[in-house]
Amino acid sequence: MPNTQVSLYLSWSLLFSVASAANAAAQYSERSETPGVAAAVDVSGRSVKNKRVRAIHSNNPSDMGSTAYFIKRDPFLAYQLGRNLNFREFRTRDGVFSAIADLGGPMPDGTTAKITAHNQVSCSGCHNLPQGNPGGGTNFSKDSGFGRQAPHYYGAGIVEMLAIQVRAEILSQIDTNSDGWVSAPEAQAAAIPVRVQAATGPFGMLEYGNPRLSGGATGSPSLNNIFRVWYVDAAGRVVPGATSVDGLTTFGYNFGMIVWGWGQGSGRSALNPTNRAFLWDPWNAHGGLQAFDPSTLNDPDGDGVSLPTLSGAIQFPATHQAPDAGNQRDPLGFSLDDPDGDGYLSEISEGDLDLGEFFMLNAPRPAFAGTNAEYRQGVLAMAAMGCTDCHTPNWTIRSQDAVFAGDRRLFDIEVNFDSVAQRLEGELVPLYTYLAGTYTPNRGSFQIRGFFSDLKHHDMGAGFAEVDFGGTVNTLWRTPMLWGVASGFPWGHDGQSLTLRDAIMRHDGEGAASRQAWLAATPMERQAVLGMLRKMQLYDIETLACDITGDGAIEASYIVAGMATGIERFNAEWLFSTPARIQGPITNIDGLTILSSCVVNVDVAYGQDLTWRKDSDDDGWPDVWDNAPLQAGFKDGVNN
Ligand code: HEC
Ligand code: HEC
Ligand SMILES: [Ca+2]
Ligand SMILES: [Ca+2]
Ligand SMILES: [Ca+2]
Ligand SMILES: [Ca+2]
């Protein structure tokens, strides 16, 4: 019997591969088709439907199909294209990998390897709870034998905006002549400790360390470990490799907040300062896909901070540069470097990063699935135990002015708990002005309730200690945002806490007093905390009941392009400038009528025929970047 099964499978797959080869030109390997026609089908509508085509960056929205066009003219499509880059499974023909599961990157001791590299073809290989969302959930072999836990990145835009805002606020206090860096005399005159106001009200004032230099006119500052500092010459330009202000080659410093990552130990902050960097880094480390990114290198004054990207985020080339340097370029503009030598060029383009970043900027934030009273009680109980000394509940994004960038997002999804219906319900809140076909973010202020982090690193002592692969001990960790913590199973940097109680019981070092307070609290007080933590949750973004039309109601049968799509919900495809039209009711092989969310106008809805996007030979190289636009060549447009 097993033999028959195998041979059946073989003959079927043989037939199938012949059929698909015959249809190759008409097919996408993504699930873009309708049932009964081809293999690449998904009636749930959740799979990636658009073709893998390198996106082309432009600052000009009139360049049809460029990233400026999508972000300014068709931003929900930009969001969806970015979503699909985050969740797409990259294939051999896209340049994924060169090696598989080799060891990569040095630990602090300089010799021990840090991670199992080249182990996933998609961000969603690890960030997939719930599937198709920027959730967390998996642990993988990194830093120590216990591994590291993948956090969710719901609300990633807010996290990034706060990180850039804290830096801007600190800089505006110390950099008294406003030239963008801290000179030795400015450092000497700085107030200590440097303070930042997270939000008005209680728990709002945070201290980020000592910006003065260790030796007065020379040395280094002692800011909180979450910052990475670099040193600059008399004109504020990065001096590569410098480790202090010496008054000879270095005359001051600059810094960025490495907000992302659990922590890498004393003097090593954490992983990445921006969402853009948190795309090219894992694509390289896990997927073997190297990005070429002129936007990050766009630093005309050489101070180590780039001009804002299309999403409005400054980058930090002083400390973080994409792996493909683009030393040699094709006349059409893409990089010829091929850092991993697999023959596939420009595996991730600057435009891909624009779109992936735009999705992360606008990624919806976690929700609180309880009443205001339950929330208030929980926060009060946490405050009484000292938890809020680190888990800062509220933050304010400052509106745009000379110092701050304002809320750069296009929209917010406000999710609340309906205690009568006993469910979460969302509301799409536009944060843009639409004028003459162009969407512009309002860049106002935004109140974030229920964030629960001070964005600082703390010494958490033995309870959370990590002995890394090479034997170095780390006890410094970023206060994790607790939004979404109920869906964050398991907990701690190593995922070793299988209950919330256990995570709390591991608080040691600077958190020891809090654990004592937890132990001394009454069962009711502890219950108030746990009860609240268990309501801070994630949700499936695309099936959440959600008012997207702004009429204050959630329609039971929401019609898009003449087709009933089910309950009103946030599916970005329906907000495209040409909305995606679903297939609608179909009869399946069992004779049941089901709703097919397959999209029947993929090419038009997804802008696949626009000048800067069109890929006539389906090789992933858009015609305008393809040296043989009518001959498939996955490696470089020409060769296979
Ligand atoms: C192999 C599993 C894996 C893959 C694939 C992966 N990640 Fe992660 N991710 C992790 C782990 C583990 C961490 C925590 C790492 C640490 O801090 O040491 C993390 C951290 C993050 C963070 C920071 C979260 C926080 O709270 O600090 C972001 C953002 C993120 N990943 C985004 C991405 C994106 C985008 C991709 C795809 C381009 C991706 N990840 C691919 C496992 C993965
Ligand atoms: C001194 C700062 C500090 C205080 C006070 C503090 N925490 Fe934490 N908390 C942290 C840090 C840092 C971590 C991350 C530990 C790690 O990386 O493994 C953490 C982790 C957690 C986690 C796990 C989160 C996750 O995503 O894995 C929970 C839950 C938590 N804290 C709740 C509390 C509660 C409840 C209190 C009060 C009883 C409290 N914390 C007090 C700093 C603090
Ligand atoms: Ca590769
Ligand atoms: Ca390559
Ligand atoms: Ca092509
Ligand atoms: Ca070609």
Describe this structure in words.
- The chain has 640 residues and is of the alpha+beta class.
- Among the domains are: 125 residues, no CATH class; 44 residues, no CATH class; 171 residues, Cytochrome Bc1 Complex, Chain D, domain 2 (Orthogonal Bundle).
- The strands form 14 sheets. The protein has a 3-stranded antiparallel sheet.
- α2 packs across α3 and α9 packs across α12.
- The longest helix is centred in the first third of the chain and has 21 residues.
- The chain is globular, with a radius of gyration of 25 Å.
- The N terminus is likely disordered.
- The chain binds heme C (2 copies) and calcium ion (4 copies).
- The site of one calcium ion has 7 residues, from loops.
In percent terms, what proportion of residues is strand? 15-25%
Name of the CATH architecture of the domain at 367-537: Orthogonal Bundle
The outline comes out as: globular
* Count of β-strands: 30
Do you know the CATH topology of the domain at 367-537? Cytochrome Bc1 Complex, Chain D, domain 2
Say which molecules are bound, naming each kind only once.
heme C, calcium ion
Please state the CA-atom Rg, rounded to the nearest Å: 25 Å
Mean model confidence by pLDDT: 94
Q: Percent helix among the residues?
A: 10-25%
Q: Helical element count?
A: 13
Biggest pleated sheet: 3 strands, antiparallel
